[in-house]
Amino acid sequence: MFRAGVLLSLFWLPCAPLLRAQPFQAGAIVTTNLAMQNRLLWTNDNGQVFTPSNTVIHLSDFEGKIAFFMFFDVW
Amino acid sequence: MQWYQRFKGTSNAIPVAYVAVNMEPASVWQAQTDSLLHTDNITICGNDYTATNSKGIRNLFAPPTALNLDPRPLFLVINCLSNSPNHAHWQVLVNEFYDGGGAIDFTARIANWRAIIESVQSPPPLITGARFPGSDFEFTIPGQRRRTNRVEFTPDFSGWPTLTNVFGTNAPVLIRDPSAPADPHRFYRVVRP
Predict the structure, then answer these.
(1) Residue A36 within any structural domain of the chain
(2) ipTM of the assembly?
(3) Could you give the number of structural domains in chain A?
(4) Cβ(B165)–Cβ(B148) under 8 Å?
(5) Residue among B24, B75, B78 minimizing CB distance to A59
(6) Which residue has the higher pLDDT, B2 or B52?
(7) Does A2 touch chain B (CB under 8 A)?
């Protein structure tokens, strides 16, 4: 049993990095509906109002468009 | 982005949404963040942090590595069009990130991103609003900026004469066919050469 455990570990350890989630690179399909806290007051094409205090922006809110995201921070 | 707002989308008539995503959670920087958003006329902005998590979305696309501990800025373009003939729904078109700090000239990169965005093809045009309000037969087709759409018709499929060529904007285009009553029935199609 101990020997089997050692063998399993030897096979398992090299595979461990592969089990980490891979980033979505160009060409990949995004499989999660990205969600972020809304910051500005805006209205989408369907008339849905997004207020800064209590709404979340989802990737699906841009259905039918090409979405360009710029991630930034000021410093 | 003002380019796409002005022309109501790409040359394939696909609207483009510009979304700024703030990654800076520190309260001391929020006024400056708002100032930047206002100066750049940004209308859609989200925060990529919560009370317990920071940069969670950024990390899905550009996780920190030993060579780049805090990737920023990140430029991300996603096709949210479900029926494009050449790009899958939710496909990542651009994923580019940098290591922050210093001034970077993005002129060449912007041209490249624009070329990628313009490469996304729109679905085949649909003829809508067909009606006979008077003596003319009318219907509407979607326009395409800087592209020609050829409207053709046939009464019997022996040939497809051109009814009209449409060149112009991304707005819907009303097509009128005053000669439609000459045939008992007509079929129409839109060709995008």
Answers:
(1) yes
(2) 0.79
(3) 1
(4) yes
(5) B78
(6) B52
(7) no
Fill in the amino acid letter for A20. R
Q: Give contacts of A 28-57 with B, CB under 8 A.
A: 28-32, 34, 36-40, 42, 45, 57
Place of tokens 């520190």: B26
Q: Which domains can be identified in chain B, with CATH numbers?
A: 2-118 (no CATH), 128-191 (2.60.40)
pLDDT at A12: 46
Predicted structure pTM score? 0.78
pLDDT of A18 higher than 80: no
- Phi, psi angles (nearest 5°) of residue B22: -85, 130
Q: Which of A13-27, A46-60, B8-22, B136-150 has the lowest mean pLDDT?
A: A13-27
> Which DSSP helix (H) or strand (E) runs through B166?
strand B162-167
- A19 contacts chain B (CB < 8 A): no
Residue A48's domain spans which residues? 2-62
